[in-house]
Design a protein that fits this description.
The protein has about 450 residues and is α/β, with parallel strands linked by helices. Helix content is about 25%, strand content about 25%. The chain has 3 domains: about 50 residues, Rubrerythrin, domain 2; about 210 residues, 3-Layer(aba) Sandwich (Rossmann fold); about 170 residues, Ribosomal Protein S5, domain 2. Helix 9 packs across helix 10. The radius of gyration is 27 Å and the shape is globular.
C-alpha cells in the first residue's frame, strides 16, 4: 500500500493538502510566513494566508505545448486581426483584435466599459456568434441596454454565470468569434476555497482564460475593476498575464471618453481612441482637435494652444492657466490634465529667467476637455498660458505654441514637428511659436522660431 501511494505521488495524482502561503493582496508578493510590511510595495498589513495552488489543479487547454517550430514555419494567420467596428478602438489595439489574444479593459465604475464592449459585440455579431458573459448583471439587464444601443441580433449570446469551469465548457461548445467576461473579479474556480475577487481566484481564472484563448484561437476581453487610486484592482500578475491592457478614462459628468493603451504585445502603447457618450451609446470622434479647442479659434488671456502627439496622431489642446494673488504662506500649484510637478518646475524657470513674481501667486493649470498631456512638448504652451494670465495679455490670433523648456530657459527641439504644424494649419491656425530647428514649413504657415523663453517673451509680449 505504501509503495502504491509512493508511485501515485511520483505521477502527481495525489496533491498535497493543507499547504498554505502568504501573499500580498496589493502586488502579489509571496512569502512562506506572515509579514507586517510588504518588502515589494511597502504596504502594511497586506498579507493574506491562501491555499497553495497545485499545478495539476489547472487543466491546461493548450493543444501544442512544448512543440518547437522554426520562425519560417509559423503560419502568419496566427497573428490575424479582426476589426471591432470602431476605427478608434482598432487604432488603440494596433490595427484590430488579434485572434487568440487576452485583453483587459479597465476603468472607473460607470465610465462606459460595458457599453463599449456590448457595442463591439453588436458589430462583430454581424459575421458570427459572439458570447457575452456577465457575473454582475442579469441577462435581462443586458438586453435592456442592448435595445437602447440598437443591438438586435440572434448571434449575440448572453450568459449569466460566475463559475469559470461552466463558462469554459460553453465556450468550447459554441466556439464564438469573441468572448466578453464582465468582470474577472466575479469569476470563481470552485476547486479553490477562496472567495470571488481574491488574489488567488483572479490569478487562477485569468490563467484558465489565457490557456483557453490560445487553445481555441479565440480573442477574450475581460473587464477589470479599479481601486480608489485609479489602479487596476487585483494582483500585478493580472497585467503581466494578459496581452493587452486598455484603460477607459474620462469624467462621468462630461461626454468625452478616452481609450488608452497601457500595454500591447501587438502594437504601440502610445495610441488613444476618443469617444463621445450619447444616448445611443459611444460615438467615435474622428477629429478630436475640434472638441478640445474653443469654437471660435479665439485665444484669450491665460490660454495657449498646444499640439501634442498621441501615438501617431497630432491633437490640438487648449491649455488654460489662472494666476491669482496668494493668501497662503506657501502659494498653491494645482494642475488638471498635466503633471503638477512639471507646472512647479516651469513656474520656477519663469521666475528666474523672466523675472515674473510667481512666488506670490497661486497658479492653476487645466487642459480643456479632459485630455491628459504627458509629453514635454507642451511646456512652452504652459509657460505662455501662465505668463498671459499674469500679464492679462493674449498671445496672438490663430497661434499655436510647441516646444520643450529646459531648466536654463532654452527652448529645446521636439520630434514630429512637421506633423504637428500640418495638423494646426489644416484646422486654420496659421501662426506658431516653435523651437529654432529645421523643418519644412507648411504652406501659408508663419513660424516664429525662438531659442529661449527670454527671446520668445520679447517677440510676443
Amino acid at each position: 500500500m505504501i509503495k502504491f501511494k509512493y508511485r501515485l505521488l511520483l505521477r502527481g495524482d495525489i496533491m498535497s493538502k493543507g499547504k498554505t502561503k502568504f501573499e500580498c493582496i496589493e502586488c502579489g508578493y509571496e512569502s512562506s510566513k506572515w509579514m507586517g510590511k510588504c518588502p515589494q510595495c511597502n504596504n502594511w498589513n497586506s498579507f493574506k494566508e491562501i491555499e497553495v495552488i497545485s499545478e495539476r489543479s489547472r487543466v491546461s487547454l493548450r493543444t501544442e505545448i512544448g512543440k518547437i517550430r522554426r520562425l519560417s514555419e509559423i503560419d502568419t494567420e496566427e497573428g490575424e486581426r479582426i476589426s471591432t467596428g470602431f476605427i478608434e478602438c482598432d487604432r488603440v489595439l494596433g490595427g484590430g483584435i488579434v485572434l487568440g489574444s487576452l485583453v483587459l479593459v479597465s476603468g472607473e465604475p460607470g465610465i462606459g466599459k460595458s457599453t463599449l464592449l456590448l457595442q463591439i459585440v453588436g458589430n462583430l455579431s454581424q459575421e458570427g456568434e459572439v458570447l457575452y458573459v456577465s457575473g454582475e448583471e442579469s441577462p435581462s439587464q443586458i438586453k435592456i441596454r442592448a435595445e437602447r444601443l440598437g443591438i438586435q441580433n440572434d448571434n449575440v449570446l448572453i450568459m449569466g454565470e460566475t463559475k469559470i469551469i461552466s463558462i469554459v465548457e460553453k465556450i468550447r461548445e459554441v466556439k464564438p468569434r469573441l468572448v466578453i467576461i464582465d468582470s474577472i473579479q466575479t469569476m470563481i474556480d470552485t476547486t479553490l476555497n477562496n472567495s470571488a475577487g481574491s488574489t488567488t481566484q483572479i490569478k487562477q481564472c485569468t490563467g484558465i482564460l489565457m490557456d483557453l484563448a490560445n487553445a481555441l484561437n479565440i480573442p477574450i476581453f475581460i473587464v477589470g475593476h479599479v481601486t480608489k487610486d485609479g489602479d487596476i484592482a487585483g494582483p500585478r500578475h493580472l497585467e503581466h498575464m494578459v496581452d493587452v491592457v486598455l484603460l477607459f478614462e474620462g469624467d462621468r459628468k462630461q461626454q468625452i471618453r478616452i481609450l488608452r493603451t497601457e500595454k500591447n504585445r501587438f502594437g504601440s502603447t502610445n495610441e488613444v481612441g476618443i469617444f463621445e457618450m450619447k444616448n445611443e451609446g459611444l460615438v467615435e470622434v474622428k477629429n478630436p482637435s475640434e472638441i478640445f479647442l474653443t469654437e471660435e479659434n479665439e485665444i484669450r488671456a491665460g490660454s495657449a494652444i498646444a499640439v501634442t502627439m498621441e501615438g501617431t496622431r497630432p491633437i490640438l489642446a487648449e491649455v488654460q492657466a489662472l494666476v491669482v494673488p496668494s493668501t497662503f504662506n506657501y502659494p498653491r500649484r494645482m494642475a488638471v490634465g498635466i503633471d503638477t510637478n512639471r507646472v512647479i518646475l516651469l513656474s520656477a524657470v519663469l521666475e528666474r529667467k523672466v523675472g515674473l513674481p510667481l512666488s506670490r501667486y497661486d497658479i492653476y493649470v487645466n487642459v480643456v476637455g479632459g485630455l491628459r498631456i504627458t509629453e514635454t512638448s507642451s511646456d512652452l504652451a504652459v509657460v505662455f498660458a501662465i505668463a498671459s494670465s499674469l500679464k492679462e495679455k493674449t498671445i496672438g490670433e490663430k497661434t499655436v505654441v510647441v516646444g520643450e523648456v529646459g531648466l536654463t530657459g532654452e527652448i529645446r527641439n521636439i520630434p514630429q514637428i512637421e506633423q504637428r504644424l500640418n495638423e494646426a494649419n489644416k484646422l486654420g491656425w496659421v501662426n506658431g511659436i516653435v523651437p529654432n530647428q529645421s523643418f519644412v514649413v507648411p504652406k501659408g504657415f508663419n513660424p516664429i522660431k525662438v531659442k529661449s523663453i527670454e527671446e520668445a517673451f520679447g517677440k510676443i509680449f
